[in-house]
Amino acid sequence: MSQPRPSQPPAPIRRQRLALSLAVLGPGLVVMLADTDVGSIITAAQSGVQWGYKLLLPQFILMPVLYIVQELTVRLGIFTGKGHGELIRSAFGPFWAWVSAAGLAIATTGALLTEFSGVAGVGDLFGVPHYASLSLAAAALLAVVLTGSYKRVERAALIIGLFELAFFFVAWAAKPDLAAMAREAARVPVFNPRYEYLVAANIGAVIMPWMVFYQQSAVADKRLGPAHFTAARWDTAIGSVITQLVMAAVLIAAAASIRPHAAGATLASVGDVSKAMTPYLGAGAGKIIFALGVLGAGLVAAIVASLALAWGLGEVAGYRRSLEHHPLKARWFYGVYAFCVIGGALGVGLAPNLVNLNVGVQVMNALLLPLVLGFLVRLAMVTLPPARRLRGWYLWVVAAVCLVTCGFGVLGGIGGILLG
């Protein structure tokens, strides 16, 4: 006798669940698309040129690490209703809140310099002077935020960030040798200091302070509640996979197209990467597709990093901080955002040699990891409702992942700096 099939939820309930999931999607995807910013792209390209496919495996290992870290921001935002800076202030006091904000400001400054250097580099590819490309980018970024609600800003950021998917075509067009990829990926020179330095840079390119602040504040600003938790975790998980696949695609493209012809190439800027890579992808279409990917990466990261600092400082200082407020009612919040955007554009425009700091900025992010992850884990242990706190075996997993990640990031970064 056949067993009865499990009953399916009625169609209206299924549609309601789907609508709920789609409404939640956004903060995780946006922050993950921003994660693959201009500095990350240059770091991945440098990894492919210097070490071939030997840094490919870490890109996949970092997927669950990235998810574990950012899932904590979702958990904290949903179950406390507070942004990251506000939660640190309420749990540990103003001093530690300002310490965390100082780390955020340092990381945001570095990020914005790399994003606008990418914009300037794309302009160089097409003969557009820096003052024009940077001014247009700054105006567009100001318009996106100053004229919209959170929902509009999120949609704009998603559309801009999706241009990063162009790097999958770039990797395919580079025609990588799959057998060589498998061989090299398995041969990891773990104790080579120069390799460790790029491992640190790749870790810093994946976990950045402004990502933690942005996603937790975005979840709070979007007013997500416990009913949204599962969908928000999926949002974060999907984003974690996509961003690391983009990093892997850039690394593969560089290893396949640049390394065989110029293994010692130093890729300090977007222009360097494009000049070295696009001849093997096609000077016309290859250059356009590469430029779209870089613009998508740089602009979405500039939005996220600037908003993260505006939210973070507001949570610590106590000024109004929401994209739902009119600019005249939240002048400090929008003022900080505008200052970040205009300051980043002016910084790169007035000191173009800053484009050479891209990999160094990622290493700086790695050196900040103990501060960032320390606060994050401790908050998840003490501020959440008992049923949602880090405890038991998962606490040990999270602690181990964070300790190993910090260890590789800090030791690799210091070792590379000492080597010069």
Molecular structure report:
Helix 2 packs across helix 15. This protein has 19 helices and no strands. The chain is mostly helical and 420 residues long. The protein has one domain: Amino acid/polyamine transporter I (Up-down Bundle), CATH 1.20.1740.10.
CATH topology: Amino acid/polyamine transporter I
Q: Give the name of the CATH architecture.
A: Up-down Bundle
Helix content: over 70%
Order of helices and strands: HHHHHHHHHHHHHHHHHHH
Task: Give the rounded overall mean pLDDT.
Answer: 82
Rg value: 21 Å
Helical segment count: 19
Largest sheet: none
Class in CATH?
A: Mainly Alpha
Q: Give the total of domains.
A: 1
The number of strands is 0
Uncertain parts: none
Described by the principal axes of the CA atoms, the overall outline is globular
Strand content: under 5%
The CATH homologous superfamily: Amino acid/polyamine transporter I
Topology:
Blueprint: H1 11-24, H2 27-35, H3 38-51, H4 56-80, H5 84-92, H6 94-125, H7 130-146, H8 150-161, H9 166-173, H10 178-185, H11 193-206, H12 209-221, H13 229-257, H14 270-277, H15 285-317, H16 331-350, H17 358-367, H18 369-382, H19 392-419
Helix pairs in contact: 1-13, 2-8, 2-12, 2-13, 2-15, 3-11, 3-13, 3-17, 4-11, 4-12, 4-13, 4-18, 5-6, 5-15, 5-18, 6-7, 6-14, 6-15, 6-16, 6-17, 7-16, 8-15, 9-13, 9-15, 11-17, 11-19, 12-15, 15-16, 17-19, 18-19
Compact summary:
This protein is mostly helical.
What key phrases describe this protein's structure?
Amino acid/polyamine transporter I, 19 helices, mainly alpha, globular, 420 residues
